[in-house]
Write a structure and sequence with these properties.
Layout lengths: L45 H9 L18 H5 L3 E5 L2 E8 L2 H12 L5 E6 L3 E6 L6 H7 E2 L2 E2 L9 H11 E4 L3 E5 L5 H13 L5 E3 L7 E5 L1 H11 L14
Antiparallel strand pairs: 1-2, 2-4, 3-4, 5-6, 7-8, 8-10, 9-10
């Protein structure tokens, strides 16, 4: 399936009809094309929805603000990449499961960004936006030449963490969660760790030889904080893949 850019008209692009993102997360309906990887069925009951409705919103939590393009900095905190071409930019990220594709395509569509995907080696999937002027400020903030580096005073909000989690978060029972980093983004790792600590999620940096690169968030208190910030699990997320 082609991942070539769909062009940029200077306006928000409608989501392409090539991946069936969960209905509740998708602003416009799409149709599934042959060959789309299947995500597992939603396994989160109505009792959790009731708990979420009664829970007080967390300041900077994912439920406290409307989606914006600036939230995509959460993907860049993890393994996401952004590249420039002329006056446009494109964001991409590789993920390890089909359910993540469902969630990310829906999240990008909710921000008016066209996205496409294709399978890659090792049972992984690449998700990419089109080249668009909308992403130019994000690229300008994060790129120094071609090197990715967090901007000064970078911070993590609930929506940024939610995107990072959807792309590269992994549960490690009973009380750990890994937030994976870009393998070639060593210059980012320290600043990302500072941002996590500022959000109340101080973690341990794991190097490539320790199952990383990733930050390991441990302890019930920090995992509870993470769950509050990122909000309820997406419908496409399998059981036990999201902090609750």
């Amino acid at each position: 399936m082609s991942l070539s850019g769909l062009g940029d008209t200077g306006k928000a692009q409608p989501p392409p009809a090539l991946f069936p993102a969960p209905e509740s997360d998708t602003p416009t309906p799409g149709r599934r094309r042959r060959g789309v990887p299947q995500a597992g069925p939603a396994q989160h009951g109505s009792s959790q929805q009731g708990d979420d409705a009664g829970r007080q919103l967390v300041f900077f939590g994912a439920d406290a603000a409307e989606p914006t393009v600036a939230d995509l900095a959460g993907l860049l905190a993890g393994p996401g990449e952004v590249v420039r071409m002329g006056g446009t930019a494109r964001l991409s990220v590789q993920v390890d499961a089909a359910w993540r594709v469902h969630v990310l395509v829906a999240e990008l569509a909710s921000r008016g960004l066209a996205a496409s995907w294709e399978p890659t080696e090792g049972a992984r999937h690449a998700v990419r936006t089109s080249y668009t002027r909308v992403l130019k400020p994000l690229a300008a903030a994060w790129l120094h030449g071609t090197t990715k580096r967090p901007p000064h005073a970078f911070h993590l909000t609930g929506r940024r963490l939610r995107l990072w989690l959807a792309a590269a978060g992994t549960a490690e029972p009973p009380d750990c969660f890994l937030l994976r980093l870009g393998a070639d983004d060593q210059e980012c790792w320290e600043s990302i760790g500072v941002a996590l600590a500022s959000a109340g999620l101080a973690g341990t940096l794991l190097g490539p030889g320790e199952g990383g690169p990733a930050y390991r968030i441990t302890g019930r208190r920090r995992l509870s904080r993470l769950a509050e910030l990122v909000g309820a699990p997406p419908p496409a997320a399998p059981t036990n893949t999201w902090p609750t």
